[in-house]
Design brief:
The structure is a homodimer.
Chain A (H helix, E strand, L loop, with lengths): L7 H9 L3 H12 L3 H10 L7 E7 L5 H14 L4 E5 L25 E5 L13 H10 L4 E7 L3 H5 L6 E6 L5 H7 L8 E4 L7 H13 L11 E3 L8 H18 L1 H33 L2 H8 L6 H11 L3
Parallel strand pairs in A: 1-4, 1-5, 2-3, 2-4, 5-6, 6-7
Helix pairs in contact in A: 1-2, 1-3, 2-3, 2-5, 4-9
């Protein structure tokens, strides 16, 4: 993205008018660290903060994308303009390596904007591009954002810092509940969907999941529902929508909403600070360890740690 | 870990003597960013760089830990002292949330040291604690390091920057090859293991995998073997060992060894620079965005981006 082509005024105006091309360009800008992205976010900030964000997470093959596709018309009918951000590299939205370039389905339906984000450059799995991309979509008038993320360990945990409601999608398969428990995923979802519920073992999985959730004692407050769906045929999706909305109401009633949003804000700002310093770190590494130095280190003629220690001491005031 | 208890001389000496407790304490130190860890690594550096590192990656349930357990005695017999670093949160070595605290099996066998590392604080999935932990084990006299990492997208790609040989473990399951291709994993392994080969579909999977690998044209140089194992019963493990060693010989013959080690070094140093700045970033975020400021931002009374822009401009010299 050449700097010369960056026109802050027209980009801002285009996003605020909800123009698809402007949104696409704006998201491309904010995916990567730059001063320009901060300027754009500064302009758009007053128009953000109003969307509800739902994270759809789960292992590859659990049917996350199918669920996302099914949720879209339900939320459209409720009057929402729906934005979808797919961070799962195996998502059909993202395309992934098998399709070569990433597929971008922009404005594929009226009132719906679908966009894949690279999971590269991520911190703890969730793409750092997500919170800025959410802001762009908010400023463009989308008020429900679905965030699809691949489900594995850390990745699923981080979606909590972006989403108001986290939906964990599972499929009836022996050992899946145990895997999820071991990975520490089980506690972070607000809603569980056992998809492909026509398969054998769905009801047993629900029982196992309930038992697993109650291992830590009866939940205080929100009791995460476990819903059975056959997303491919749309079965059970209305229940998912009902409970997502119930979860919002619960949070608003209890003040949890504000608390969680505050957390999201901290995470978002921290990520931006990190990225700023990280960009600097890359340049600094090249300065500190040029080709010749690397060669000396590789040949054990030079110890690399004194320079790192010096850097540490220079950035950490005593 | 209280700073007062850090005794650089005795810790260095303990690690060099191969004392289990010293190794455990040293790894704990180097897992997290600090000036002390850099001092320790500086002392140990002259005694490092001699181990061979093998990454064992694959989805949860593919049998990575079983394979690791089976590889240990084979490499012991070849005269290696074996260190194991498990970064997979679902690994039985790590224990994970289900067992409460992480399990550490230290010195469970003569000449073998097993240690789990948190996957938290990771960059792109692989724990940043891995390269420093490898250095500790090297300095303590371990000359073969097995690194077990959970297999999902980015995580599997990063193990390449630490390991001399990457083994991707798969199980015969419909769609697994496709998933791996989509996630861009297929290209990064040096050796493929189709585990649980007694299951239906193992031979077909091997054919699919070979076809997938040849999609991008016949490989130049190293042609990654695809081996069938039943790791639980030790079947096929000797073949895995044979091909791992053959891969080392291939690399040494072709100069690939040096090139790859240089890459590992760059990644390691870059990660340390990153962590240094990241630690600073956390403190800086707290400075820039204290409680009162956050509240004003949450209530839209203050725009957060001017401060971020200021930070950006202060660390990026024009």
């Amino acid at each position: 993205m050449a700097k010369a082509s960056f026109d802050l005024d027209s980009l801002t105006a285009g996003v605020l008018r909800g123009e698809t091309r402007a949104i696409a360009r704006a998201i491309s800008y904010v995916e990567n660290p730059s001063a320009e992205r901060l300027m754009l976010l500064e302009r758009l900030f007053p128009h953000t903060g109003r969307a509800v964000k739902v994270g759809i997470t789960g292992a590859p093959g659990a049917g996350k994308s199918t669920l996302v596709f099914q949720l879209i018309p339900h939320f459209r009918e409720l009057g929402y303009r729906v934005g979808v951000l797919a961070v799962d590299p195996t998502s059909p939205f993202s395309g992934g390596a098998i399709l070569g370039d990433r597929v971008r389905m922009e404005d594929s339906l009226a009132g719906v904007y679908i966009r894949s984000l690279a999971s590269r450059g991520s911190l703890g799995g969730l793409s750092r591009g997500v919170p800025p991309a959410v802001r762009i979509l908010e400023a463009a008038g989308y008020d429900l954002i679905l965030i699809e993320t691949v489900g594995a360990g850390q990745l699923q945990i981080d979606v909590r810092f972006v989403a108001d409601t986290v939906v964990l999608t599972l499929v009836p398969e022996a050992g899946d509940v145990i895997q999820a428990m071991k990975a520490g995923i089980i506690e972070i979802a607000d809603l569980y969907v056992v998809n492909k519920a026509d398969r054998e073992g769905a009801t047993r999985m629900r029982l196992e999941l309930r038992a697993a959730l109650e291992l830590g004692g009866k939940p205080q407050g929100w009791n995460p529902p476990i819903l059975l769906t056959e997303a491919l045929h749309g079965k059970g999706v209305d229940e998912v929508v009902r409970f997502i909305r119930e979860h919002w109401e619960y949070q608003q009633r209890t003040g949890e909403w504000e608390r969680r949003r505050q957390q999201q804000l901290v995470w978002e700002l921290q990520a931006l600070v990190h990225e700023t310093l990280e960009t600097r770190a890359r340049a600094l590494t090249e300065e500190l360890f040029d080709e010749a130095t690397l060669l000396r280190i590789a040949q054990r003629e030079q110890n690399p740690y004194p320079r790192l220690l010096q850097l540490w001491q220079s950035v950490h005031p005593v």
